[in-house]
UniProtKB/TrEMBL annotation:
Superkingdom of the organism of origin: Bacteria
SMART domains found in the cross-reference section: HATPase_c, HisKA, PAC, REC
UniProt keyword list: Coiled coil, Phosphoprotein
In-chain residues carrying the UniProt-annotated modification 4-aspartylphosphate: D621
Domain PAS, chain residue ranges per copy: 152-223
Organism, scientific name: Shinella kummerowiae
Lineage of source species: Bacteria, Pseudomonadati, Pseudomonadota, Alphaproteobacteria, Hyphomicrobiales
GO MF assignments: phosphorelay sensor kinase activity
Ranges where the Histidine kinase domain occurs: 330-549
Every PAC domain range: 226-278
Record domain Response regulatory: where: 571-682
Keyword Coiled coil among UniProt keywords: yes
Entry protein name: histidine kinase
Signal peptide: none
């Protein structure tokens, strides 16, 4: 098995810069940073050198401008699902479509691409290369986790096959029955035969059907494990014996939702026991007392075994979810940092193009997209850390209307979006940011289901349930529906659609987390996600959310007028191990009129505090190697007890253990938020 991360000495960068000295310069800079590199002399050699062990590729724009990119595109599309090779493009005209129309074509072909405009500073090049290397390492870690999950599934299936055990699952709401091929063979069916719950009842000996139903009722009522033996009648008329064992699963409200278990053919054992019973009747009378004791003891290897199996199943599930959470949280945290640099630079850039209406519109669109991305990363971080949602009354009609432009841009020109919105609906109780992300995700899924184009219909309605309906308790619900005219899903695919990492999209084009996260959001809101689909005709997704009795909350942005701000010129020490974020934050602070000293580690920051004397404010990232922002804050307060400190973090809450109260700045942040938090922390320090 490969190592979980690639050390710098093993990282290989592939360079394709046939003209000028670009290849020599890039190779030298990478060598100084401890990153090995090799050259692809022409496009054919470059493509031939691409493999999973390449950390990232550095290419000049002119080398690709007139080249046949089809072999390169084919290699990129053939990458495994965990792989998304980073490309760094050296260009004379930047990466924007207005200045460089060729950039759009390269972005479409290469996918994971960063543009560096020449002439470039060595620090900028190494920073982008380091970011690409870190991203590639996270891809290798994702590969290991996926391989580990696959290996666990294979071992489980091997154990079932070795024990000749058939797996099955019964939905107690719909009585839909899922069975393995081995399970169907135990009832005399072939692997290709359909086997519904009605088929199961018909396969049980008529004298044993009521016993089986009674055992199911007992398990549902008491929660005890389901264990029974009964006779089965095969299609050829022969009688066999089956042993069935299962455990009951409940939802968060305690309602029984399904039985999951195994089955085994015990015909030989049962018939042998019957013959032995006849031979041992006299002996059993003499040892009845002893036999009773043995039965009691036996009931106790079995209770312990069942408890152990249950504990092991819970442990495996916990480990699986922990792995998923760690992977999701790590990726989301790093992406959150990248958005920080994007938002900061876009805000500063907007100040310099106020007279250019087209540039302002484009920058505003990019800002809106980046903020949506920031909301998405917050949802992923909440998913990884199981944080609570911020639930308020939300006007669904207003939410859909405000998202109309974003949805139209997201689906492209080949898709038509139709909406059916009532004039008035009572607000629902939800987290508006997460609801926007859920709607956008459903619309994008609908777009992907219609590669030839079509119509997406979004509608709102209100429904009242008078009795329990599946996962939904009685009450009023707002229903948000998204319907497409795409290829649809069959029943088997529909059942798996909300499972984590399940995707019908081809490798590299879907994470399999979209519907899973929407389903999880719906459950947190005491609602549900319902999917219905017909192959060849399309799919409808319904998001059911409880109605609120309060007035809908209209989000407001708190703005502090410039004339009311009392913060003067400050001497600020800014600390962040990510050069892009540090550069963006420094630019925002300088634009606010402050003097800034920049540090990229806790040790470097402490050295500045000791050598450069007094600072008015310390702003530090929390997640840094060797010394966290919390540890830096402790050390800084030891040197300067009254030093105001502001800690930036993408997580909702800072981990405990700092030992004193510090102000928190949520990532990604805007220049206005930065200014407001500085003013707030300084006012707190003065009081």
């Amino acid at each position: 098995m490969r190592s979980k991360a690639i050390p710098n000495r093993e990282a290989i960068a592939l360079i394709h810069a046939p003209l000028g000295r670009d290849a020599q310069i890039a190779g030298s800079l990478l060598s100084e940073a401890g990153i090995l590199s090799k050259n692809g002399e022409d496009i054919s050699a470059f493509v031939a050198s691409l493999n999973e062990d390449i950390a990232f590729a550095v290419v000049t724009e002119e080398a690709l401008r007139s080249a046949d990119l089809r072999p390169l595109s084919a290699w990129i599309k053939s990458q495994p699902s965990w792989s998304d090779l980073p490309f760094i493009i050296l260009t004379h005209r930047g990466g924007g479509p207005e200045r460089n129309p060729c950039a759009a074509r390269l972005s479409e072909v290469l996918g994971n691409v960063s543009f560096i405009e020449r002439p470039f500073h060595a620090t900028t090049f190494i920073s982008v290369a380091s970011s690409a290397l870190r991203g590639r390492r996270r891809q290798y870690e994702a590969r290991l986790r996926i391989e580990a999950l696959d290996e666990g599934e294979r071992r489980l299936q091997t154990a079932l096959d070795a024990g000749r055990l058939g797996a099955w699952e019964l939905d107690l709401m719909t009585y839909a029955l899922i069975t393995s091929a081995t399970c169907r063979r135990i009832f005399g069916r072939s692997a290709a035969d359909a086997f519904t719950y009605d088929d199961l009842l018909a396969a049980i000996h008529p004298d044993d059907v009521e016993k089986m139903k009674a055992a199911v009722r007992t398990t549902i009522e008491t929660g005890s494990d389901y264990a029974i033996e009964y006779r089965t009648v095969w299609p050829d008329g022969s009688v066999h014996w089956a042993e069935i064992r299962a455990q009951l699963y409940r939802d968060r409200s305690g309602r029984a939702i399904k039985l999951v278990g195994v089955s085994a053919d015990v015909t030989v054992r049962v018939f042998s026991e019957e013959q032995q019973r006849r031979l041992n009747e006299l002996l059993e009378e003499r040892v009845a007392e002893r036999t009773e004791e043995l039965h009691k003891a036996h009931a106790i290897v079995m209770a312990e075994v069942a408890q152990r199996e249950h504990a092991e199943a819970q442990l495996r599930q916990a480990q699986k979810m922990e792995a998923i959470g760690q992977l999701t949280g790590g990726v989301a945290h790093d992406f959150n940092n990248l958005l920080m640099a994007v938002l900061g630079n876009l805000e500063l850039l907007r100040k310099h193009v106020d007279g250019d209406a087209k540039a302002v519109r484009l920058i505003d669109g990019a800002l809106q997209g980046a903020r949506r991305g920031a909301s998405l990363t917050q949802r992923l971080l909440a998913f990884a850390r199981r944080q609570d949602l911020r639930v308020d009354p939300v006007d669904l009609g207003r939410l859909v209307g405000e998202m109309a432009d974003l949805m139209k841009r997201s689906v492209g020109t080949g898709i038509v979006i139709e909406t059916c919105l009532p004039e008035r609906l009572d607000p629902v109780l939800a987290d508006s940011n997460q609801l926007e992300l859920a709607l956008l995700n459903l619309v994008v899924n609908a777009r992907d289901a219609m590669p030839e184009g079509g119509t997406i219909r979004i509608s709102l309605a209100e429904t009242t349930l008078v009795k329990q309906d599946g996962e939904l308790a009685p009450g009023r619900y707002g229903v948000l529906s998204v319907t497409d005219e795409g290829h649809g899903m069959d029943e088997d695919t529909l059942r798996k659609a909300i499972e984590p990492f399940f995707s019908t999209k081809e490798l590299g084009k879907g994470t399999g987390l979209g519907l899973s996260m929407i389903h999880g959001l719906a459950l947190q809101l005491q609602g549900t996600l319902r999917l219905s689909s017909v192959p060849g005709k399309g799919t409808t997704a319904e998001l059911w959310i409880p109605v609120s009795n309060d007035v809908a909350v209209v989000p407001e942005v708190a703005v502090v007028p410039e004339k009311d701000r009392e913060v003067g010129l400050l001497r600020v020490l800014l600390v962040d191990d990510d050069f892009l974020i540090a550069m963006s934050s420094v630019d925002m602070l300088v634009d606010l009129g402050h003097e800034v000293v920049e540090a990229h580690s806790g040790k470097e920051a402490l050295a500045n505090l000791k050598e450069n004397g007094r600072f008015d404010l310390l702003i530090t990232d929390y997640s840094m190697p060797e010394m966290t922002g919390g540890e830096l804050a402790k050390a800084a307060r030891t040197l300067f007890p009254d030093l105001p400190i502001l800690i930036a973090s993408g997580y909702a809450d800072l981990p405990p253990g700092i030992g004193f109260d510090v102000a928190k700045l949520g990532k990604p942040y805007t220049q206005q938020q930065l200014a407001m938090e500085i003013e707030r922390v300084l006012r707190g320090a003065q009081t």
